[in-house]
Amino acid sequence: MPAFQCRALFSAVFLLAATAGSQSGPINQPAVWAAKPDIPAFEKMEDARLAAAQRSLDQLVAIQGPRTVENTLAPYDEAIRQLNAAVNLSVLMQEVNPDKDFRDHATAMNTRASGAGTALSLNPDVYKALASLDVSQSDPATRYYVQRTLLEFRLAGVDKDDATRKRLKELNDKLTEDQAIFDRNISDDVRTIDVASASDLDGLPRDYIDSHKPGADGKIHITTNYPDLLPALTYAKSAGLRRNLWVAWTARAYPKNREVLLGMMRSRYEIARLLGYSSWADYNAADKMMVNGANVARFIGQLDAAARPAEQREIAMLLAEKRKTDPKATDVGDYEGFYLSELVRRSQYDFDSQAVRPYFPYNQVKKGVLDTAATLFHLSFRQEPDAPAWAPGVETWDVIEDGQTVGRFYLDMHPRPGKYTHGNMVPVLDGIRGKQLPEAALVCNLPEATAADPGLMEYGDVVTFFHEFGHLMHHILGGRQQWAGISGITMEGDFVEAPSQMLEEWMHSPQVLASFAHHYKTGQPVPADLVARMDRASAFGRAGSVALQNALSAISYDMYKASPQDTDPDAIPIKDFRRYTLAVPLDSDAHFYANFTHLAGYSSAYYTYMWDKVIAEDFFRQFNQENLLAGDTPMRYRRQVLEPGGSVSANDLVKNFLGRAQSMDAFQKWMGEEFATVPRGAKSGDR
Ligand SMILES: [Zn+2]
Question: DSSP states of 57-95 as a string?
């Protein structure tokens, strides 16, 4: 998931949905994303949306006499629907349009549409109109919507004086600009390591070596892009290569982004102070489950305590592995984690991650993920081969329930020059009951199946597919609200990674895997003992990765927990890596913040992933562990967690499903138990 751009009304909606019109069926935009890029058509559509939003707001403000839900909330929500549509289409086109010129125009349009959102969040006339509504007789979802909207308005500063609001608008616009620069500096800074000969690539898979032949200068070039980087960090026997690559990777966008980050820290601190908060971390938590900065710090401490024992066992096993070739080794460097973990998985768990790839050809995995979600959520999916999308190979699918179309999604799953390089779900349209069906796009960079290549996926790739599909189901199934402003994943920003991380767990079900993981040559289902070894091996390293995620959460929090004047960005990463992880950071990690993209978007809220992982594991343990698809839990989960969208608070969603608040128990079990029963010969306390 990418970032929230500013503290406007959309906190979580921001990157979500988009399209015009009030038809009741799925809508697509052939004029905008047909084969030939049509920038004028795109800009015309976006302009029309922004104008329609403004008309609705003008109409709302002009009302004389008593205010009602019909004459005030309805036009307000129509403006939100149009603004979301505009913002989200621009986000999507910026990420995926094959034409560079189109993407540049989409970026400029996104700045405009976001600016319109900020202006609305600071509009006192609209705020006063909504605040004067009597919703005491309305349904609970409408009451909750109005209450939450008023909170967001106040957090934006709508009730401040003119000069303060003007300053807030300037700061937010500056922030939007700095965030874009921060991200662009990172994606523009691809670094390359040269190696002298193919022997330096020892240990890497054959297809990797074959695709990295020496260039005209006789040297082999390895870039810091993931498809180059991750296999090298995981499999290359050469410690020098791994170390050099790590240094290059963690140096991206430094020193350029130092000043950009400081600029964002200053803007955010000033915004927080103007609004009466002591820090950005405090302010940023105010409309989230976390509520305040002290709770973030407390959670980081709890997670540290929970991860520590299992992490100590893991690091001892990594060190023992390292000593097989380096008997004098006394510690494990952070850059060695991928490589040594792979060796431990082979030596201790008899599992080689290359062994499962033949069972994960892309097309079968896709069918498996869709079939699993269909069974789990009692839906079906139908491809619409004639519905156009923005690039060749992008698929359009409709979601069907009881013979009715209830939503639409697009699968844009493979790399393409200029495309967004990570994975995310970008909503295309908010679902509104009786008015507009939800739409969303999955934007991923997974291997592609061609006539010559089955598109074999890594274990982690399959997990990513399940994860993003979890977001997609949340958006679609949560997309039957009365209002756009509470549709889909429009809710507390620190809940949205729970449904996605929960669906990842379906990867561990032997039944689910047996249904689609068939060898691409023989068609044989993946052997049960290989699945068992894969599951055990995948449990190894969890505590270390939790510790790392916790260190990143601490970095994100520490950058924003005080005045920028008292904060040294160059000191924070090493301090937090040392405090929260047992692997030893390299000195060069000090500048890692320059390419930690989430410091722009999530800012102080990177803890979201781990907070939601705790919730996701608690949810997951409610399912029948012998058969995840069995019983009434799947439908209960759908009804109580996904379908409400943002119509109730996230805390209530959790309580409605669990019958209590979330606890750390299931998470702790996930982190340590399975792996703790297995290790042979590992002794803890080696360091
Ligand atoms: Zn996610």
Answer: HHHHHH--S---IIIIIHHHHHHHHHHHHHHHHHHHHHH
- Residue 30 counted as domain residue: no
pTM (2 decimals)? 0.90
Task: Compute the distance between CA of residue 319 and CA of residue 332 in angstroms, rounded to an integer.
Answer: 6
The rounded mean pLDDT for the chain is 90
Which two tokens mark 686? 């080696």
Give ion ligand 1 contacts, CB < 5 A. 1, 497, 500
Average pLDDT over residues 564-587: 97
Kindly give the distance from the C-alpha atom of residue 425 to the centroid of ligand 1, in angstroms, as a whole number: 8
CA 334–ligand 1 middle distance (angstroms): 24
Alpha helix stretches (DSSP H) within 561-607: 572-580
Confidence of residue 22 (pLDDT cuts 50, 70, 90): very low
> How far does residue 598's CA lie from ligand 1's centre (Å)?
13
Residue 406 Cα to ligand 1 middle (Å):
23
> Can you read off the two tokens belonging to residue 464?
């990513």
Q: How far is the centre of ligand 1, averaged over its atoms, from the C-alpha of 468 (Å)?
A: 6
Tell me whether residue 556 is in a domain. no
Q: How far is the CA of 658 from the centre of ligand 1 (A)?
A: 22
> What is the structure's pLDDT at 33?
66
Q: Which position has the higher pLDDT, 510 or 154?
A: 154
The pLDDT of residue 12: 27
Q: How far is the CA of 142 from the centre of ligand 1 (A)?
A: 28
**How many domains does the chain divide into?**
1
pLDDT at 421: 75
Query: Does residue 231 fall inside a structural domain?
Result: yes
500 C-alpha to ligand 1 centroid (Å): 6
Asked if the model's pLDDT at residue 17 lies above 50, the reply is no
Question: Is residue 20 in some structural domain?
Answer: no
